[in-house]
Specification:
Low-confidence stretches: 1-10, 385-425
Mean pLDDT: 77
Number of domains: 2
Distance between the termini: 77 Å
Oligomer: single chain
Number of helices: 22
Order of helices and strands: HHHHHHHHHHHEHHHEHHHHHHHH
Structural class: mainly alpha
Largest sheet: 2 strands, antiparallel
Helix content: 55-70%
């Protein structure tokens, strides 16, 4: 088969085609429903809370237009701010509206993976890939929040358009791929990391190396730059007194850590095991161990099987992100650095499962077991509304989560700098979340009672607004009344 040509398939009957379309449609509805339900039940993390407040600065009224470009202390460009605002224009000024575009883009990412794999390897590997991403706990988790993880949609879109350009010899798709990655950079700069990775693939691929000499390839690079340059220019032209370009990107570089072997990128796939052994908590939602093991196994298996061009591309992408960021020894795993690698591993896993079915009925039946586990964990993640930024691993008690958060310094400045308590009573703070935040306020008030009396009293005041007669409120009032400001 010629490189980039579609695989030969027998022509299915009209009934089979209709059934296949119904099956895909049902899966897409389930994919959307899981993410939408999670978006309606999970309280705001601190990143999202600050974006909600900043979105209030966007004014589209003629004569009074306000388009903010700074999202300090978010430390990214303002693209997510406008995605959230678009959702509120569609569904109303509330938390679900603010998260709606994240849900839509997360669902669309699953469809793009399906379309990519179907063009290369056929319907059934594509369907299995769709299932794997639909129920992936990490992807569900990041799709329910209106934070910068929506850059993942633009990453997978860029990969798809890049592959279409190679497969169909359509140079216009190469330019579109660059523009898509540039649009993603407005949300998070991580999408631009794909530019050198895709260039490296072209350099390594004999059959596609000619693309390095085609003007459309470099036009795609210019398109990526051109899309994000206007916002970067406005960012620099209107400096924020609270931050600077050096502060923002210096923070990102610092979080990478020093050179040396690290585990951060690999922890994306073994997160439950890592957190269990290290007695830490998950800063980001995680995928199940079964899902992680399957994805890693599929990548390793691809090295020993026959490699077509898509397999080579996916392997380059996977190892560029997982292997590349494993060269930095960060003090804590940063899943976001390696998150794009998931879109390379999922298609390989989908094809591996389908090859198991083709090999024998027994292998096919056994391959159903991990799918059931992955689907169950995905539903669990989507339905877990008792936690905020943390995925349910073993459903730890609220006190244990808080104790570990404080132990590792995850919230030491949360209440002062991000203080989303001022959203109480707004459409972004539904009444059903009050119990959650009451216990947060009380717990932190106890913690700060010995170090920062002023902050402890502020937290107590917020807790008393929710439950003024609660015994713990009375006890804290007595405790803080016996202490004076340092």
């Amino acid at each position: 088969m010629a490189v980039g040509a579609r695989p030969a398939h027998t022509t299915p009957s009209s009934g089979t085609v209709k059934a296949a379309r119904v099956l895909v449609a049902v899966l897409m509805v389930v994919c959307f429903a899981l993410r939408y339900y999670a978006a309606t039940t999970v309280p705001m993390p601190y990143d999202e809370a600050q974006l909600v407040r900043l979105s209030e600065r966007i004014v589209l009224t003629p004569g009074a237009v306000s388009l903010p470009v700074h999202v300090y202390p978010h430390r990214h460009l303002a693209g997510q701010l406008y995605l959230g605002k678009l959702g509120t224009l569609l569904l109303g000024h509330n938390l679900v509206g603010f998260r709606f575009m994240s849900v839509v883009l997360g669902t669309a990412s699953s469809w793009i993976i399906f379309a990519l794999v179907r063009r290369a390897w056929g319907f059934w590997p594509a369907l299995l890939s769709l299932v794997l991403l639909c129920f992936n706990g990490f992807h569900i988790g990041v799709s329910r929040f209106a934070i910068e993880r929506t850059y993942l949609f633009f990453s997978v879109l860029g990969i798809y358009l890049f592959w279409r350009a190679l497969q169909d010899d359509r140079p216009g798709f190469m330019i579109a791929a660059g523009a898509g990655l540039g649009a993603g950079a407005l949300v998070s700069e991580h999408t631009l990391l794909l530019l050198p990775v895709l260039a490296a693939y072209l350099a390594l691929s004999k059959s596609n190396r000619r693309w390095l000499t085609r003007w459309q390839t470099w036009a795609g690079v210019l398109a990526a730059v051109a899309v994000c340059v206007p916002l970067v220019y406005m960012y620099l032209r209107n400096p924020d007194p609270q931050s600077s370009l050096y502060d923002d990107y210096g923070d990102h570089v610092e979080r990478l850590g020093r050179f040396g072997l690290g585990y951060g990128s690999l922890a994306l796939y073994i997160a439950p095991l890592y957190y269990k052994l290290s007695d830490r908590i998950s800063v980001y939602p995680v995928m199940s161990l079964v899902s992680g093991a399957l994805l890693l196994g599929a990548v390793l298996r691809a090295h020993f099987g026959a490699k077509d061009e898509l397999t080579r591309l996916l392997l380059v992408i996977f190892w560029a992100f997982v292997g590349g960021f494993s060269l930095f020894a960060s003090s804590r795993p940063e899943f976001k650095w390696a998150a794009t690698s998931m879109f390379a591993a999922v298609p390989l896993a989908g094809r591996l499962l389908w090859e198991s079915w083709v090999r024998s009925t027994l292998y096919g039946a056994l391959s159903c077991l991990p799918l059931v586990c992955i689907a169950g964990f995905g539903i669990w993640v989507a339905s877990a509304s008792h936690n905020c930024y943390y995925s349910p691993l073993i459903r730890p008690a609220q006190e244990r989560i808080t104790d570990q958060a404080l132990k590792h310094g995850l919230y030491t400045v949360m209440w002062e700098d991000y203080n989303f308590a001022d959203l109480t009573g707004s459409p972004f703070f539904p009444a059903r979340y009050k119990e959650y935040y009451f216990h947060r306020y009380i717990t932190y008030a106890y913690y700060y009672a010995s170090d920062d009396i002023k902050l402890a009293r502020l937290l107590l005041e917020r807790a008393a607004q929710i439950h003024p007669d609660h015994p713990r409120v009375g006890h804290l009032m007595k405790l803080l009344g016996q202490r004076s400001d340092p």
